[in-house]
Amino acid sequence: MHLPWCVRKCPYCDFNSHAVKNEIPADDYVNALLHDLEQDLPLVWGRPVHSIFFGGGTPSLFTADQVEKMLSGFRSKLQINPAAEITLEANPGTTEYDSFSAYRDAGINRVSLGVQSFSDDSLDALGRIHGREEVETAIQSLWASGLENFNLDLMFALPGQSLNDAIADVHSAIACSPAHISHYQLTIEPNTAFHAEPPPLPGEDLAWVMQRNCGQLLSAAGYRQYEISAWSKPGSECRHNVNYWRYGDYIGIGAGAHGKITLPSEESICRRVRLRHPTAWMQGANSGESLAEDRLLESDERVFEFFLNQLRFRDGVRKSQFSARTGVDWIKVSARVEEAVGKGLLLDENGLLKPTELGWRFNNEIQAIFLP
Ligand code: SF4
Fold first, then answer.
1. Which atom of ligand 1 is the closest one to the Cα of 12?
2. Are 149 and 236 contained in the same domain?
3. 6 lines ligand 1 (CB under 6 A)
4. What is the pTM of this model?
5. CATH number at residue 358
6. In this structure, are 98 and 189 located in the same domain?
7. The domain spanning residue 217 has which CATH number?
8. For the chain, what is the domain count?
9. What is the pLDDT along the chain (372 residues), one digit of tens a residue?
10. 361-368: long-range contacts at Cβ-Cβ below 8 A with a sequence spacing of 24 or more?
11. Which atom of ligand 1 is nearest to the CA of 17?
12. Is the CB of residue 186 below 6 angstroms from any atom belonging to ligand 1?
């Protein structure tokens, strides 16, 4: 579920998020989401749902009552596993819209908190609306609410950040004992304020040292890196994201949301993308015309997407899963896999493909080999 509003737009953000101008049309948006879901139901009849993710934007700008209404609506239309992982993205400084206890009572059982840094200077340089104090308040409320399965998003290689600053952020995150930490490098994306006026960032070599040293700290604290940016305590991997990265199926509803559904009858995969602008999407959702794109993926797109996602995993992927997930014969990619192995980027161990240390560091080089 994409909920596309934020208090204001961060200068590095290229997500489909929109600064709140007056008031969010939250009730209308919730009704439109339930209409929008109807369009995808014929593609997924009888299939159980194992996870739900309220992403954004800043979903914590919606109240717990609105979240509960969405979940009740989904339960009436879909077969939702009683043990489903149900995540709400939240930002410190927005939790006054409702309490984590209220979200838990509404059915949320996991929270992903957009901390980004514990340093007031770094948060200021990132244009975030919160400071360290709001981060600490939000984490205390998470513990008090009983929502112990939470993720902290943390970025490194920030404007003006030193190696010691990056390490201090990871120490602060570990001290909060979250079940999961997403630790990723700030990158400058086109169509952002930072792209127009780039801030002074640490160089690539320093960024790599930050990543390596912070990774050592996270490992020593009992977190396991199961994906390029994802670290978790044992058993606390994000099931929703694991499904994306394992190239599983998902419905995406809301402004600009993407979905991917395997159609066994067509031996293919359907990609659906919703209209991007919230107003246009809401009008479309209410009249059953919210799709900006609805098409079957070409075989070379399926090959690329499969490797793009699966080779983000530390544990790699079994070759035997390739044809089952893509509908493409292994022979079509064997030469490219051999090329990646020959360049020292991939290991092929008895049918299990894994990035080497070199491939782990230069994952883009692997992806380039599988580009359509
Ligand atoms: S809070 Fe997140 S989604 Fe919203 S503008 Fe900032 S980075 Fe983008």
1. 7
2. yes
3. yes
4. 0.95
5. 1.10.10.10
6. yes
7. 3.20.20.70
8. 2
9. 999 999 999 999 999 999 998 899 999 999 999 999 999 999 999 999 999 999 999 999 999 999 999 999 999 999 999 999 999 999 998 755 679 999 999 999 999 999 999 999 999 999 999 999 999 999 999 999 999 999 999 999 999 999 999 999 999 999 999 999 999 999 999 999 999 999 999 999 999 999 999 999 999 999 999 999 999 999 999 999 999 999 999 999 999 999 999 998 777 899 999 999 999 999 999 999 999 999 999 999 999 999 999 999 988 999 999 998 999 999 999 999 999 999 999 999 999 999 999 998 898 999 999 998
10. 361/208, 363/228, 363/311, 363/312, 366/307, 366/311, 366/340, 367/304, 367/307, 367/308, 367/311
11. 3
12. no
Q: Would you say 145 and 120 are in contact if contact means Cβ atoms under 8 Å apart? A: no
Considering the domain architecture, whether residues 211 and 137 belong to the same structural domain is answered as yes
With respect to residue 277, please indicate whether it lies within any of the assigned structural domains. no
Does any ligand 1 atom lie closer than 6 A to the CB of residue 114? yes
Distances in Å between the Cα of 273 and the Cα atoms of 36, 135, 221, 256, 296 are 12, 33, 40, 6, 12
Cβ partners under 8 Å of residue 221, min gap 6: 174
CA–centroid distance, 93 to ligand 1, in Å, is: 12
In Å, how far from its chain's centre is CA 260?
Answer: 15
Same domain, 18 and 88: yes
Q: Which atom of ligand 1 is closest in space to residue 6's alpha carbon?
A: 4
158 CA to centre of ligand 1 in angstroms: 16
- Containing domain of residue 78, as a range? 2-244
Residue 239 maps to a domain: yes
For residue 17 and ligand 1, the question of a CB distance below 6 A is answered with yes
Residues 19 and 139 in one domain: yes
